[in-house]
Structures are given as structure tokens and as C-alpha cells.
């Protein structure tokens, strides 16, 4: 049976969280909402509707949600050329793919955003599939995106590892019964990631790549036919 390496993208593989924070902060400001940037930062990783509920309260006027989301999308879209992958992010994916892992990107990014992120990552040769919030009824922290990702590669949760940078990533993985690995490069403190369920925490893709042998990835053995058994 195959193994699945599931990866969030924003803030995990691509250095984009700060751009999302500014785009959401400005969209909210234009809509008459004063929300501090630190609060916006901690909400990054949630799908748009959930993010607005988290920041403005579930009882806020939802009539402006589409306009706020569209403003964010427009503002963030002007930053696509500034997107950069974290150091060794593509190498991490290729190392795992070369070891027989099926790589699935699990993201709340919309199609246009995901295209820009994948261009910045430049590792499509290592990616097997993608699962987005648009493909499921509920995005992270619900387990739906991770469960969809597993179904796309026909892998059980006990043979998968999920890597993300937000508390929403860690909670979604735990709810899907997949071991979560947290990365600090998205800007969320280690204690928050661990408190949300992270099994281990690493600085960034480079650090995880250097410690794969000591990470949860090492605890999922290759299937017998992939390990050279006779």
C-alpha cells in the first residue's frame, strides 16, 4: 500500500502568509472593519467564509462577505510575482516522492491562487494530486480536505503524514486521524502548533528535509513490494 505525504501550501511550502495578512487587512479596512494584523495572521489558513466568521464573529453582516473576499483576492493577486518558495521546499517534495510517497497538496487556496503557488514552488513533477477547500463542504479545521486528499491517492490515514503551518492544519489532521507535522515558517509559535496536535515541529522545509530520518515520516514503512521483499 502506498504512503501519502500531505502538504499545506501557503506558509508551509511557499512564503505567502504575510501577503495574505496584508491583503485581508486592507480588504477589511476598506470594508470599514478595524482588525489588528496579528489577529488576521492567526486566521490565515481558514477558508474565506470561516476566516471572516473567525475575525468578525459568526453574527456579523454576511452580506459583505463576497465583497470582502473579492477585495482580498484582487489585492493578493497583485502579489503573485512576489511569491517565493521556502528554501529546499521543492527538494523536500522530490525527496519524499523519490522514496515512494504520494505527494498531495491540501490547501484553502482558490484555483488562480494555487496556480501561482505551484509556479513559485516549481515542483509539479513531484506532486500526485491536489485537494482544495472548493472541493469539499467544509475546509480546515474540518477533516474534509485531508480525507479527500487520502481518497485521491487511495491511502489510509495510518499511512499518511500531514505537514502544515497553522493550528487549523494541525486540528484538521488530528480529526482525520493523520499524524501532523508543524512548520514554524508560517509564523505561528511552536507551543500553539503543539497544543493543536502537532506530533513534531520543525523550522521550515529545509529543517524537515534534514531530519526526515527522525520525523514521523520514518515511522511509516514502505509497503513490502516497495521495500524489495521477495
Automatic annotation (TrEMBL):
Q: What's the protein name?
A: HAD family hydrolase
Q: Which PANTHER family match?
A: BLL8046 PROTEIN, PHOSPHOGLYCOLATE PHOSPHATASE
Q: Which organism is it from?
A: Streptomyces wedmorensis
One function term, GO molecular function aspect = hydrolase activity
Q: What is its EC number?
A: 3.-.-.-
Matching InterPro entries, A to Z? HAD-like_hydrolase_sf (IPR050155), HAD-like_sf (IPR036412), HAD-SF_hydro_IA (IPR006439), HAD_sf (IPR023214), PGP-like_dom2 (IPR023198)
Keywords for this entry? Hydrolase
Alphabetized Pfam families for the sequence:
Hydrolase
> What are the TM regions of this chain, as residue ranges?
none
Give the main EC class: hydrolase
Q: Which Gene3D superfamilies match?
A: HAD superfamily/HAD-like, Putative phosphatase, domain 2
Amino acid at each position: 500500500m502506498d504512503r501519502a505525504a500531505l502538504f499545506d501550501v501557503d506558509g508551509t511550502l511557499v512564503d505567502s502568509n504575510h501577503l495574505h495578512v496584508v491583503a485581508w487587512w486592507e480588504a477589511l479596512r476598506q470594508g470599514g472593519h478595524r482588525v489588528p494584523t496579528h489577529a488576521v495572521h492567526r486566521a490565515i489558513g481558514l477558508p474565506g467564509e470561516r476566516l471572516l466568521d473567525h475575525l468578525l464573529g459568526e453574527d456579523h453582516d454576511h452580506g459583505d462577505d463576497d465583497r470582502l473576499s473579492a477585495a482580498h483576492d484582487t489585492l493578493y493577486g497583485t502579489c503573485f510575482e512576489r511569491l517565493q518558495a521556502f528554501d529546499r521546499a521543492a527538494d523536500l517534495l522530490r525527496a519524499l516522492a523519490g522514496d515512494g510517497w504520494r505527494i498531495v497538496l491540501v490547501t484553502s487556496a482558490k484555483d488562480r491562487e494555487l496556480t501561482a503557488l505551484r509556479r513559485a514552488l516549481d515542483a509539479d513533477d513531484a506532486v500526485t494530486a491536489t485537494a482544495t477547500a472548493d472541493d469539499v463542504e467544509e475546509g480546515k479545521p474540518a477533516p474534509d480536505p485531508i480525507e479527500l486528499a487520502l481518497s485521491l491517492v487511495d491511502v489510509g490515514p495510518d499511512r499518511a503524514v500531514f505537514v502544515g503551518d497553522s493550528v487549523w492544519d494541525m486540528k484538521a489532521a488530528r480529526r482525520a486521524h493523520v499524524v501532523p507535522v508543524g512548520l514554524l515558517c508560517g509564523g505561528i509559535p511552536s507551543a500553539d502548533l503543539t497544543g493543536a496536535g502537532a506530533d513534531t515541529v520543525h523550522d521550515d522545509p529545509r529543517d524537515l528535509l534534514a531530519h526526515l530520518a527522525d520525523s514521523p515520516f520514518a515511522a511509516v514503512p514502505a509497503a513490502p513490494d516497495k521495500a524489495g521483499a521477495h
